Amino acid sequence: MFLIVLLLLLCSTILITISAFSWRSHGQWKAFRLPQGDMGWPVLGETLPFLKPHPSTSIGDFMEQRTSKYGTIFLSNLLGKPTVVSTDAELNRFILQNDSRLFEPGWSRSIVEVLGKHSILFQVGDAHKKMRSINLNFVNNAKLKTPFLRDAYRIAAFVMSSWKNKSVVLGKYEATKLTFNMMAKNILSMEPGTPATENLRKEYEAFAKGVVSLPLNLPRTAYSKALKARAYILKVVWQCMEERLCRKKDREEEDAKDDLLQWTLENSNYSEEQIGDLILGTFFGGYNTTSKAIALAIYFLGGCPKAVEHLREEHVRIIQGKRQGGNSELSWDDYKQMEFTQCVINETLRLGNIVPYIQRKASTHIKFKGYDIPQGCYVMAVLPAVHLDPSLFEFPEQFNPWRWQSDYGMKKTKNFMAFGGGARLCPGAELGRMEMAVFLHHLVINFNWELAEPDLPMAFPSLDFPKGLPIKVRLLSNAQLAM
Ligand code: HEM
After folding, report:
1. C-beta of residue 435 within 8 angstroms of C-beta of residue 288
2. From CA 374, how far away is CA 326, in angstroms rounded?
């Protein structure tokens, strides 16, 4: 009993101290014209209602209620920080386009702890440019056109060949098999499907669940599991590094691997910690987002037979063109012909909203639409609010890939923020699109599918299908079976 009282006293002292601090810093800004809003509870602020799960095809009650009460730019206290929240397309674009000039990364401490302080997301200036150039080199055009496209084609075919004798598969896991194995092979030269690769995949699942979660480092919380997974993943990376360095000493150069780890070891002067965070982050960015994008496409297309038909026509046409040429695997030219597929991808990312927000900190005093954003203030660009704005996308709740076909549709790309923008625009955007296109290629030419039981994409803690997206699959009588 005494211990409990002592613990409570300790907790309340910490709470009061921290909240006094955060309110004082908010008080410094009294001279400014801040957006309206509610700071919620001390310390917790409005974090709990903000993190409440909701369908990822909506902005959720929290954003809905605050926006209708205070407007598209409002003040809140989220993840331990007073934050200007933007559901405004113009301010979101302004934030993304002015990264490093007016804004710097402003991710919460809990996210920094999980991803590591050397992660590219937290680098600024030259350090950011240097790490970004490593990422850009990793996904350069030459690599996309050959090893990545070839691996995507073969792994997707392999994944779907296992569906032939199944009636129900979990779309979420099937998508991960492609994207995770792609990253494992090209980052650490780990072979698809081996026990070591599978173990790493499981750890990454725990890691992904905890990145955006309530930052409580208590037993069995998503956050503490993510921290444990981080430690495991780093151990694997550092073991690989050690093996490579030993091999170099033994001059076994003919065995040198052609992957991101090797390239970084040979072309950077990064420390062990920096390499660990770089590899961990690229892996995470590269598999987690794309697997969700593929699962979302399976889900949306399952509810839109007309789009499947249109997509199938496009892919059958490409295959027929190839038969005359002889080679059955997809080439980059084939990929570039997939125009409607790109519309499906845009629409999937718009409506599915994989990345719910981007956090930054004002590095100087900013005035926007009559509001002050003081130096040091945190800002949150809520991307789904733009994608689901009816004044920007007609009937935004509908899955309508055709909206991207018309000239009018193309003009809307400035309101398409799925890959972020500006100096931090996703370097893996084309790789992600290509993996989605190749997966859809095998899917539509070989299978019909429908949801085996109701499921839907939920936002927060991170985008997920609670039931794993169970789909009934049926092999087409005229399946192309390039598997
Ligand atoms: C559909 C798939 C993808 C989506 C929706 C997506 C989304 C995003 C977004 C929104 C950002 C900007 C974050 C910010 O501004 O703070 C970003 C950055 C990043 N993405 Fe992706 N991504 C995808 C695929 C990939 C792939 C395949 C890779 C693998 C190489 C990757 C690696 C990265 C990296 C390294 C960054 C940090 C860039 C920087 O800070 O300069 N992403 N991604």
Report:
1. no
2. 62
Any known ligand binding at 11?
no
- Locate the ligand 1 atom nearest the alpha carbon of residue 96 and give its number: 15
- Helix pair angle (429-446, 171-188), 10° resolution: 130
The reply to whether 21 falls in a domain is: no
- Domain housing 388: 29-475
Which residue, by CA, sits nearest to atom 13 of ligand 1?
Answer: 420
Spell 144-161 as b/e; 16+ CB within 10 A means b: beeebbebbbbbbbbbbe
CA distance 457 to 55: 6
Residue at 18 is within a domain: no
CB atoms within 10 A of CB 21: 11
Instruction: Give the pLDDT confidence of 31-64 residue by residue, as tens digits.
Output: 889 999 999 988 789 999 998 999 999 999 999 9
Tell whether 23 is covered by a domain.
no
Mean pLDDT, the chain, whole residue set: 90
Q: How far apart are CA 183 and CA 280, in angstroms?
A: 11
For the chain, percent of residues with pLDDT exceeding 70:
89
Distance CA 37, CA 439 (A): 44
Report how far residue 243's alpha carbon sits from residue 50's, in angstroms, rounded to the nearest whole number. 44
pTM: 0.92
Q: Which helix (H) or strand (E) holds 73?
A: strand 73-78
pLDDT digits (tens, 9 = 90+) for 149-161: 999 999 999 999 9
Query: What's the structural domain count of the chain?
Result: 1
Whole-angstrom distance, CA of residue 305 vs CA of residue 318: 20
Residues in the chain: 483
pLDDT (average), residues 313-332:
85
pLDDT for res 44 = 85
Q: Is residue 51 part of a domain?
A: yes
How far, in Å, is the centroid of ligand 1 from the Cα of 259? Answer: 19
Please list every protein residue whose CB sits less than 6 Å from any atom of ligand 1: 120-121, 132, 135, 139, 282, 285-286, 289-290, 293, 349, 354-355, 358, 418-420, 424, 426-428, 431-432
Q: Which helix (H) or strand (E) holds 264?
A: helix 260-267
Q: Which two tokens stand for residue 356?
A: 């719910």
User: For residue range 219-269, what is the model confidence (pLDDT) as tens digits?
Assistant: 999 999 999 999 999 999 999 999 988 877 666 665 678 899 999 999 999
Q: What CATH number has the domain bearing residue 307? A: 1.10.630.10
